[in-house]
Design a protein that fits this description.
- The chain has one domain: 23S rRNA-intervening sequence (de novo design (two linked rop proteins), Up-down Bundle).
- The protein is mostly helical.
- It has four helices and no strands.
- Helix 1 packs antiparallel against helix 2 and helix 1 packs antiparallel against helix 4.
Length: 117
């Protein structure tokens, strides 16, 4: 934000930021009984996606960069599983998660592309 670095312009970064925002918007619909489980896990994983993209972009070595992008992609997969559990437990209907689902797919595809470079 203050440094005006190049990663802010990347589609993968923008997608990850939007994914995090949408994840946080859905959290109030999840029961308080999941506060220290699913809710905290979604918060951590969605933030991890963004921060690992950022940190990866700051690395000079391609191997290091890809390591952070791989961690970020792992967090996207973790979010996918969290929302699978949320639907299974009937906390939120799948149709209410379409935007998040699309962002998960988009972010995963973009990160996969970063790993192939």
């Amino acid at each position: 934000m203050f440094l005006n670095l190049n990663h802010y312009k990347l589609d993968v970064y923008k997608s990850a930021r939007e994914l995090r925002f949408e994840c946080h918007k859905i959290l109030p619909k999840i029961p308080d009984s999941e506060r220290f489980n699913l809710i905290d896990q979604i918060r951590r994983a969605s933030t991890s996606v963004v921060l690992n993209i950022t940190e990866g972009c700051s690395r000079k070595s391609e191997i290091e960069r890809k390591r952070y992008f791989e961690i970020s992609r792992g967090s996207v997969i973790e979010l996918d599983s969290c929302f699978d559990i949320i639907i299974e437990c009937d906390y939120v209907k799948s149709e209410d998660l379409q935007k998040i689902g699309n962002l998960i797919k988009t972010t995963f595809i973009l990160l996969s592309g970063m790993l192939k470079k």
